[in-house]
Structure formats: C-alpha cells, structure tokens
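#struct-queue
[09:14] JT: dropping the first one here, sequence first, then the structure tokens:
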Amino acid sequence: VATSAKTLKQAFGIPVVATIHATEAGRNSGIHDEAQRYINDTEWMLTYESTEVIVNSNYMKNELQRLFGLPYEKINVVPNGVNLNLYNGVERDYDFRRQYAADNEKIILYVGRLVYEKGIQNLIAAMPKVLNGYHDSKLIIAGKGGMIDELRDEVRRLGIENKVYFTGYLKLNQVTKMYKCADVAVFPSTYEPFGVVALEGMLSGTPVVVSDVGGLNEIVQHRENGMKSYAGNPNSIADSILELLYNPGLCAEVSRAAKAKVIAQYNWTKIAQDTHFIYQKAICQT
C-alpha cells in the first residue's frame, strides 16, 4: 500500500496515517537479502511520507525510531484490543477437555502460528523439566505453520509424544473452549510487536506465561498479572510454568488482575477514541 498511499497524498494533497504492526527487519532479525532490503526501504518510505504513524507498543515505537530515524512525536502508540464479549457464555467443558487430556492432567496451552519467532520450539524444549517437576501435565499446541514436522520430530526425539498434543487449526469457538479448559497459557515468542493472543488468554481467566520481549513485556508484569520468562530460554519457561502449577493462590491472583487490566486498557472503545484523535491531529496539520 505504500506507493498507493504516497500517490494519493500527492495527487489530492491529503495527509497519510500509517499503522505499522511489524517490520521486515524485526521479523527476520535484520536484513539479509535484496528482497528484504526492498521491503525495508518501502516501509521506510511509507513512514517518511506519513503525517502520523501508529504502532501497537512502545517496543515498536523504539524499533521504528532505530530503523527509520522517525521523530519521536510522529509515532503514536495505540495497542491492539480484544473483544470483551469473547468468552460470554463459555464455561469449562469437561467432555471437550477429555478429547485432549485426562482429568488429572494440567493443560499447558499454546495458541498461535507454528513459526520460529513464536518460540514454540523453546516451549517444547521446556517440557521435560516441566514433566519432571509435575508429571500430571500436558502440552496442547493449537495452530498450524511451517514448523509442524520439525516440532513433531523434536517431540519424538524427547520421548514425550504422550504428553504433547498437536490439535492443528481450531475454529474460534474451539479456541475459546480450549482457553477455558487450560490451566496455564504460554506465549514464548522471540519476536512479538504486540501479542493479541496474550490478551485473549488473560481475558479468559487462565494464568499466562509470556516472554520478556516486545509488546508481551509491556502487557504483563511478573507475578502481578502473569508470569514472565527469559526469551528463548526453556529453563526459564519451565520455572514459570511450574510455579503456577504448584501455586493455585498465585494463579487466582494474577488471573484476576490480568482480566481487569484487559477490560480497562484493551477495549475497542478506548482504542477507537485514541485512533480517532490521531487522525484528527493529522488533518489539523494540513
């Protein structure tokens, strides 16, 4: 859309507002070939031509400043949101739960794409330590992606096939049911500009474990409304999971605080108002 936006701006003399939720450099840990360089240059051009830029976290604001040299005041942070009615009428369904785990097993849930930057490989690597500390637990991996065969092979290599279940793609009503059945939800990303799935987990009332990167690092405060782990560190992921599995009081405390935070800060009414203000600011500058 960058070239079209620039053309419309010049043809009609109107401001452009760009929303950037990730960058090519961020997704690939740098620029490594000409195709990536072209995309990176196009992203820079779009932000340069924009009157105002919207990003979804302070992490992304810093990333755009570092990559593109944008003025600080030109970049506006407006977080993503979640539908607060997502779990209305959804309760723990034991028949549904038994399709994936035994009643005595605690469900550790991952929801998301099976790609490297989501860190699912590190969560799988954490499972031997989790199972050693809490045998009656099971990892449920909901989603699809290019790493599926590699991840299955790793599960077999670790000898934990009976403790890891790949569901494949789930429909929205299945995902909401799964959150309600889970005991811990884990989001172990190595790169995450925001992390909507964490909001969905927090809203469900399931305690969450997140990596200390990107937007996730801003959403969750350790032991207040969730648990953090060091990004890319299976040992740290396992420690946070085990602390929740063994401490129901902590689970209840962080879950309550997490749900309250999502309702207060990540509702679409507030986000729409903040976005509307930025568009007004852009119009006033022309």
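[09:21] JT: and here's the second one, same format:
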Amino acid sequence: MTIYKHNKLSKVSQGDFVKSGEVIALSGNTGELTSGPHLHFETRLRNPSSANCSLPYLDPTSRGRVNPYCFLD
C-alpha cells in the first residue's frame, strides 16, 4: 500500500488503479508542522518482514512502513 499526504488536491481515490506518469495529486502544505509544499510518500506492507530489504526505516515506530528506497532499482 502507498500513502501520499499533505496534498492540496487528490485527483484519485483509494482503490483507484493508476498508470505510470498519471497525475494523482497536487502538492500542498496541509497538516501540522509543515514548513512548505511537499509530498509525504509512505509504503506499508501487512508483513514488513516479507520485504527483502536491508535498509531500515528511520522511524522505530514504523508500524509496517517500509523504506521507499527498497523499491528502487
């Protein structure tokens, strides 16, 4: 599952299928403690130990989040 936060406008809804290159949101500055427009991108797995990745997520309370760099080639 991927999560995108702090958007000014979301162009898709949960469960929508999207294609590479499709605009899914407009960057925004919503939420607490934001210092400017940016994208919060998060990946989560039901079973984080199933990811074959040695890169730890920086937040020790990650609750299933997986380091996004694990998905880059």
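[09:30] RK: nice, looked through the second one.
[09:31] RK: Strands lie at 2-5, 7-10, 25-27, 40-44, 65-66.
[09:31] JT: good to know. DSSP finds no helices and five strands in the chain.
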